[in-house]
Specification:
By secondary structure, this protein is of the alpha+beta class. The protein folds into 2 domains: 150 residues, no CATH class; 119 residues, no CATH class. Helices cover 41% and strands 10% of the residues. β8 and β9 form a beta hairpin. The chain binds zinc ion. Zinc ion binds next to β7 and α10.
Length: 288
Amino acid sequence: MELLDKIQTISRWRRGDQRAPHKPIMLLYALSQYKQGHERLFQFESEVDNQVKELLVQYGPSRKSYRAEYPFWRLANEAEPFWEILNGEQCVLSSQGDPRKSDLNKYNVMAGFDANSYQNLISNPEMIEKIASKLIQDNFPDTLQEELFVRFGFEVDTSTKQRDPNFRINVLRAYNYRCAVCGFDLALDTAPVGIEAAHIKWKQYSGPCEVSNGIALCSIHHKALDRGVITLNCELKVQVSPATTGGPMVERLIWDYEDQKIGLPRDMSFYPSENMIDWHIREVFKPV
Ligand SMILES: [Zn+2]
């Protein structure tokens, strides 16, 4: 089985529609390091713990705790193996089969792609790019993809962007080509500028391309929604993450809309659906 195929099974590791970014983020981190000439294995304590945790905080869903040890360890348990752990024999495992962080540090545990896969990767740099593209496109929405390509140092790949033109037009029409949060509706003659059809529940997690899973937003509010800066509550009022920082412009563009009802379509059947909003609150919004 090819390495890319083995890694593609990642999307099948998901539990329902819960976001599970641990393994993709661990792999993206390892691949970006290989691209910069890193050797095969990573030491947990100095190279993974804080680095991967930081990425999980930024790009993962909001959770009580962030554990870099999960993907570092669990990637080695796949049915089609490609990841290897060194020095792990003495770690005491929990009932879920996970090691304690203190043991990973104590025994100097290291992990990375197995020797075969590593050879394959460093002799085919384009394979690193290909796998990274796949991981980013399968796990993150369009608004975050470019940011992630740049953040990890991969070539930006928009080739496989799947667009549903009907979704875009239907959403923009329903909202009168106007940002539902701030009312921004710039157009050059009749062509909208900077107004986008956002998915509330991401396509990557089988969010449907229906107007009730969509909302027309300006580019700023689209990005803010996808990053978890803002969400909606059940009364369709804007909620702002307490983690939001910034000066007077952020005050005007974000905080001024807190608890304000969004601009809604004429047709009630187009209103954002509660299920989709619940998913967004649970899996994307940063409530703390
Ligand atoms: Zn806006």
